[in-house]
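assembly run, all chains below
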Amino acid sequence: MADIQKLEQLAKLIRYWSLVSTTEAGSGHPSSSLSATDLMTGLLFGGAFRSDVDRPKHPNNDRLIFSKGHASPLFYALWLADGKVTEKEMMTLRKFGSPLEGHPTPAFAYTEAATGSLGQGLSIGVGMALNAKYLDKLPYRTYVLLGDSEMSEGSQWEAMEIAAYYRLNNLVGIIDVNRLGQRGETMYGHDLDVYRNRAAAFGWETIVIDGHHFPQILTAYDQAARVRDRPVMIIAKTEKGKGVSFIEGKNGWHGKALKKDELARALTELGPVDKDVRGEIKRPDDLSPASRTSAKAGPIAYALDKPVSTRHAYGTALDRLAVQYPDIIVLDAEVSNSTFAEIFKKGHPDRFFEMYIAEQNMVGAGLGLSLRGKVPFVSSFAAFLTRAFDQIRMSQYSAANVKFCGSHAGVSIGVDGSSQMGLEDIALFRTILDGVVLYPSDAVAAERLVEEAAKHRGIVYLRTTREDTPVIYRNDEVFRIGGSKVLRRNRRDVVTVVAAGITLHEALAAYEELKADGIPIGVIDLYSVKPLDVATLIEAARATGTIITVEDHYAEGGIGEAVRSALAGTGARVHSLAVRKLPRSGKPRELLDYEEISRTAIMRKVRELL
Amino acid sequence: MADIQKLEQLAKLIRYWSLVSTTEAGSGHPSSSLSATDLMTGLLFGGAFRSDVDRPKHPNNDRLIFSKGHASPLFYALWLADGKVTEKEMMTLRKFGSPLEGHPTPAFAYTEAATGSLGQGLSIGVGMALNAKYLDKLPYRTYVLLGDSEMSEGSQWEAMEIAAYYRLNNLVGIIDVNRLGQRGETMYGHDLDVYRNRAAAFGWETIVIDGHHFPQILTAYDQAARVRDRPVMIIAKTEKGKGVSFIEGKNGWHGKALKKDELARALTELGPVDKDVRGEIKRPDDLSPASRTSAKAGPIAYALDKPVSTRHAYGTALDRLAVQYPDIIVLDAEVSNSTFAEIFKKGHPDRFFEMYIAEQNMVGAGLGLSLRGKVPFVSSFAAFLTRAFDQIRMSQYSAANVKFCGSHAGVSIGVDGSSQMGLEDIALFRTILDGVVLYPSDAVAAERLVEEAAKHRGIVYLRTTREDTPVIYRNDEVFRIGGSKVLRRNRRDVVTVVAAGITLHEALAAYEELKADGIPIGVIDLYSVKPLDVATLIEAARATGTIITVEDHYAEGGIGEAVRSALAGTGARVHSLAVRKLPRSGKPRELLDYEEISRTAIMRKVRELL
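ok done. output:
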């Protein structure tokens, strides 16, 4: 057993810095830090946690995720107590340019994942634990510090069920049950049985402790490490503001730094602090991750004009590319027979994880896998990825390398109706800073863009279509992020139609019919919606003066607005055909017509403009 | 006890039509309908359910929500069995123009809420049950049919915890545990104990039954009606495809209509069907909802120039308007002391529901309240409303009348960092068909726009700011949805700056400084981001030729793109200042400067353009 007195000294040091740094910053969450101080001090310096602190990215390190990211003063102070943050750095908390941001981000070397939107850390931990157990096959453990308030987020229970399903005995959650949320008591206060019963019902081993009692804390971590068949939840009774009498257990102190005089009182209460005491974290073994060989992927061989859905090509591409990109891992939310992720699953069952109908956890787990070096492809219906948009948004702050695929885009899915139609996915994914949005129109483009997505470092969104569409590209056609294809161009073109995905085929059909009538139009395949091939668009606008955009997506934030934005100031006229009426059930063609994004609508618009 | 033989006849009729209508449609979910047929037949025609079927909106009717919306053939066939859908209508299932859409929508008179994105029905039920118990004070009960697969959605457990917290004994869930999801077995197959233990751990009364055994089914509803202190979950073991041997309990039949020959075999197995049998649903009592008096709201009295945050004005406005709009109900996700919904809560605790950190369920419950005639205002940080975007998206298909308020918009929140910053909320809410997006810049505008939101029927999003901003409008200033304010205009203006919220104050400051240098600029407050005041924008573009948009939001889908889209083709030059760098912690002013959306950035851009 570790030296309890030393742990108490360290805890005091950490409390000291949590208080002092937040008062210096003038904001922050000291009370939420104090409640978890003993739990985290015991974890890092009590012998359970193994990390080569000189190599924070070392694959054998245990991972520690602060799901309650607002306890960041504690997080940084832990690393001060390990000697990795100086006192001076600690005093830069929350200041512009400091790596010690208000909530942990990768600007700080020991942050495993950015947190601050509650209820996300456990899912990220699931991804890291899946990686350890099934992919890298390394003995590292993943610890996630959870707040009691955030246990009300449904995403937590998604992570709970999936962690148990995959028997992640290398995942340890620690609930800091400090009873108080932001504006008052949580639903359950200090009723620890509620948390225990729920965690147990979700298949977890549970350990209930006093979160301020080091012997219990150390025993809990020791027990947790010995569970072999399931994840472990340590449920710890704590006091918010522990150690400072006038905030301990008191409501009204959430997210409040102490004023200078309050700090002085608090420090007096804390008593003498050994500023020089430093803890030591155990080093892990130096094992290599399970290796995977790589070989060149085979060619593609689609027959021109043959109808194949881009969603099918997505699955085929993943399966084909798997050998060349051994880090590709595929996750799907119980619709793999619709997204066609199942093609990959059949070929590479050891690299596929069924995440069931729980999109938020799927995205968080994908992020966790990405942060351990994998290249996850995460798929569901485009409509249902909206379910996890907070997780998607947050993943950019962790510098994620995750690829999302949303199938069943647009009204062209037909009879299933509006609930199943992805009509805002382009708008959502376009907001991701440095994100990429790709929208292939045929199987060749889909295959090529899946590979571009795999090669690109960052967040990529691929939009696929339910319906079969004819192959229009040769197998050796090259696609690149930020590119487009000018498919029809003639110096007499009266207008250029810009489309992508299913509407590209409508545009090509309109081209043929109008051509027969002696009306030439240009057609551009805008397969890279972000970044946009602005140069080609401007050239087209100059050539014909008028652009018609056509998309199977709501008007806002989609292709039309992207193009209009790019062409603002050029004087080009832009007409945008998009989904503008409440969609309903019907045949794909009926709905394309109804929404005025079909070949008929394009021809009507072109004739109007003549 | 009801006539079991009659129920069996009705169930046979309903199975018949679930099969026949989907084969006619060529798609749909007969197997998922067959598993729940006995459960639903027993509910509607066994005496538990009370509804005046001639008045589907009657406030005393029991509500029935098909959370597993893909069982829509069953849903419609139930109403055929009640005589409200003709055989001919039943055969229009999934056809363009038919009210019998692929998933239930309000096009069908008996649909309480549109479903089809799984895991949402229970939250909607929570809203309806809250209304019955605490607002209308009516004895109607709300029944929600749930699929076993969809129990993996975290949103379900949010609904579970909140329903128990509010002791909603008028809410009955029915899990149709048919063992099979879309692509195979669920995580738990027919292990009913998993569902029972979890529901019990979440505080629900549980009743486990054979879902094909009418006496058990009827007893379960009877028991459920007698529970007084908690919601009830009926967990029913069923067989997917029940009644047709070659699909019953077999994988591979999800979402598949029978082919003609398969249908013939199935109908032979089903045996003779009495096509004329019709069930009877009990009528409810005719009680009046608890009435609320109404009186004119008091005036507002803000002092010009005094700094007040728009989020504070939001809370003040709700509190002030409560008396005039008795249907206003406020929901908040455990941040009411930040969104300032707490001001309303203090004045009107009986019309405020604390929904804890569970945004998805909060939005679903808001929808449920709205569908029972209330005007819910639903608030959290703008960043965290993204958590519930699938629910927000779906609410438009239920013709929701819900008002969302997202506080802490943009980088100007400062030190808390990127995770807390709403930077994509405008883009998200702009995609809502017929949605309204409002973004007040001062307390007067916030007060007025809250009232406009309350008066407007439909989905409205209000974006509020953390920081205090000076009052710039007189108390009698009028604001309207679709309007804007030209705050500075001079015939010599070199450029017009279009801003809203916090950046409007940056624009006004830039105006003063540039004016001192003899450079006149126009300034427009674009408080209505959707719909947009296009006429005013075009007029400004004509007058100055150049527009600068400035927004505390990512560039995509925000104010810049909205304005650029509106002005495409006018030849106006538009320069857009928006958040384009990874945001971090810092003081509000440092971050506005860093992201180049501050007064300094505006002045720099104006000078560049001279």
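The longest strand of chain A covers residues 546-554.

Chain A has 22 helices and 19 strands.

not gonna interpret more than that til we talk
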